Amino acid sequence: MSSRGWAGRRVTKARAAIRSRGQVQPCTRCGRAIDLDRETWHVDHIVELALGGAKDDPTNHGPAHARCNTAAGGKLGGQLAAARRRATTQRTEGTRRW
């Protein structure tokens, strides 16, 4: 597969794999049941990509309510970036400002 983003055939394939596990499954975010035929849902990564989870591994995909996944989106990446900035700032505090 190409190195393009998470869309198109990748998502279609992941959705089909998730559906094959059963019609009603727990949300990966909140744990409540999702009826895959009646509710709006997204393919979610069980282990976040930012934490080393595999993008194309079917065992790392699960259903999430659209609302849950949208609310959680990007927060982990932002937290990791902020932690890296803090670590860099702490290391360079002793340098002179010109």
Characterise the protein shown here.
This protein has three helices and four strands. Helices cover 37% and strands 16% of the residues. The strands form two sheets. The chain has a two-stranded antiparallel ribbon. The chain has one domain. The protein is α+β, with helices and mostly antiparallel strands. The chain is elongated. The N and C termini lie far apart (48 Å). A hairpin with a 6-residue loop joins strand 1 and strand 2.
Could you tell me the radius of gyration in angstroms? 18 Å
The largest pleated sheet is described as: 2 strands, antiparallel
The helical percent reads 25-40%
Order of strands across the widest beta sheet?
1-2
Assign the structural class, choosing from mainly alpha, mainly beta, alpha/beta, alpha+beta, or little secondary structure: alpha+beta
* Total DSSP E strands: 4
* Number of helical stretches of at least 4 residues: 3
Low-confidence stretches: none
Strand residues, percent: 15-25%
Shape: elongated
C-alpha termini separation: 48 Å
Mean pLDDT: 83
Q: Topology as H/E string?
A: HEEEEHH
Number of domains: 1
Sequence-ordered SSE layout with sheet pairings:
Layout lengths: L8 H11 L4 E3 L6 E3 L5 E5 L15 E5 H7 L2 H18 L6
Antiparallel strand pairs: 1-2, 3-4
